[in-house]
Each structure stands twice: as C-alpha cells, then as structure tokens.
Amino acid sequence: MELLSDELTNYLENTCEAENDLLKHINRETHLKVSMPRMLSGHYQGRLLSMISKMISPERILEIGTFTGYATLCLAEGLTENGRIHTIDINVELEDMVRANFKKSEFDSKISYQIGDAKKIIPTLNETFDIVFIDADKKNNATYYEMIMDKVRSGGLILIDNVLWSGKVLDQEKSDQKTSFISNFNEMVSLDQRVEKLILPVRDGLFLVRKK
Question: At what angle do helices 141-149 and 177-190 cross, to 10 degrees?
C-alpha cells in the first residue's frame, strides 16, 4: 500500500524547500549504487526532518541508522553553533560513500559517524539529546527506544521511521514477523505515559514522540 500517490508526492515536493546540490547527489547516488534505495528519507521527509530540527535548535542529536547520510545532513541543518550529531550504522560497506558525502558538507565537523552495533555504542555516549531519530533494524526499535529514553531531555523529541510499514500494520491476521515487531512497538509507544505521541503519515509513517 502506498500512502500517497506519485502525483501527490510530486506536488508535496514541488511546494516545499528544494534539496540542495549535495542532497540531490546523495539521492541520485543512492538510487544508482545502493540496494534498497527506498530506505533513503528522500526530499519531502528530509525537509520535514530539517524543519523539526530548526524548530528545536538542538545542541545534540542521535541518529540510529545512517544509511547513506541523507537524513543525517537534513537533521544537522538545525544544530546550534556548537551542536553535534552522533550517527550510528552497522553497514561497513557504505562507510566510504557516507564519509565522502559528509566531507562535502558544511556540517562535516559537527558529525560523529560510528560504524558498529548501536546496542553497544549507545551506552558509551555520555550525552543528553534534544532529538533522537531511530531508523535502523525494525526488530530492535523497542530496544533502542528504551536505551535512549533516559538520554533524552524533558521536552526532547524521539522520531521513529517506517511505523506504518506500507500499511501492513492494518493487517493483523496476515502479518509477517517484521510487521509484528512494528505493530507491537507502535502499541507499546501508544501506551507509554512518559511521552506525548502521534504518527505522521509521511512516506512510510513517522512516529513523533515528545518526552514529558
């Protein structure tokens, strides 16, 4: 199930801020060279991430799941002068591409990019985060969510991508394992009294969670 038609998606992209040249390059390079390019946040969602970051003016951001660095750079747009974004990914094969893209960016000095298991790296980060973006292996969404909760300041945001899973979350009788992970996670967050929450029907669904 596509949440939005191609025509409506094109309209949304044409009426928001344009991608800069580097983001256009990453978008094109990802689709040409990387398997599963649909994992890229893309133009419209990227502008949403940028807008949220600029509204918060974060000092510290954590991103779990770098992929090719598109969302990283969008989130970095809102960082304060001394701000920093930590981004973690387990895919070593993309490291050279990602580091090359970051070096072309004005935000390169503000990005801490680590390759490895996020479950092992997160406990080593002695930081308090204003924004956390979870966009990695879906089976560990709940694990990452709990691991970062005490590291997010009151009023901070947690964003979780792909929470509508192409509409499969509606089909409880035929759900596969990944869909079950996502459905169970969504239910857990919906019942979590530590946060305020809503799902935005952007691309594949973006959970917007505010810590009380």
Answer: 30
